[in-house]
Design a protein that fits this description.
Layout: E1 2-5, E2 13-16, E3 18-19, E4 24-25, E5 29-32, E6 38-41, E7 44-45, E8 51-58, E9 71-78, E10 82-92, E11 97-106, E12 111-119, E13 122-128, E14 135-137, E15 141-142, E16 154-163, E17 166-172
Antiparallel strand pairs: 1-6, 2-5, 3-8, 4-7, 8-9, 10-11, 11-12, 12-13, 13-14, 15-16, 16-17
């Protein structure tokens, strides 16, 4: 949803909208009743799961307000469907402690997420091979921990060691 507003509300009006994106659909007009200043407009998009897109919605100059912006850029992300697959134990060499850690798996791919692992709002994500035997994707990720003179600490896996049904990563932070 995107909110479209107008300054003059004394009469009914229709505002025209356009977008620069092929994979985004916006209504061609937004109809306001007299006295109505704000409308929520439903935007449809078709992007692949796990990707992001950026698009611009524009209002023609004749419909725009002199002090308002005639266009807005919107960033969207189509997230995975995360399934809770259990609780593991996260052992941190950096902090010298460990804790129970919920493990989420994407329904659409072999991607895993440790939500709020070290700091709230900073998940750790990684991808395993289809047979779950090999770590095939682990980009350096911000941990949310920036209590050092160096700034934000990033986490990157150097490899993975499998023990039974569990995998342990060899990491560097």
């Amino acid at each position: 949803m995107v909110k479209i507003g107008r300054q003059k509300t004394d009469a009914a009006a229709s505002i025209h909208l356009t977008t620069d994106a092929e994979n985004v659909t916006v209504p061609t007009t937004v109809d306001f009743a007299a006295g109505e200043a704000l409308k929520e407009v439903k935007i449809a998009f078709d992007i692949a799961v796990g990707t992001t897109a950026s698009y611009t919605i524009a209002i023609p100059e004749e419909d725009s307000y002199v002090y308002g912006s005639p266009k807005v850029t919107v960033n969207i992300k189509r997230d995975y469907t995360w399934l809770n697959i259990g609780t593991g134990y996260y052992a941190s060499q950096l902090f010298g402690e460990g804790w129970d850690q919920p493990v989420l798996k994407a329904k659409e791919a072999n991607i895993y997420k440790l939500e709020d692992c070290i700091t709230k709002g900073y998940p750790i994500m990684f991808t395993l091979s289809d047979d779950n035997q090999e770590l095939i994707g682990w980009d350096p990720q911000p941990t949310g921990y920036d209590k050092t003179d160096y700034g934000m600490l990033y986490f990157a896996a150097a490899g993975m060691e499998r023990k039974g049904t569990c995998c342990l990563s060899r990491c560097r932070a």
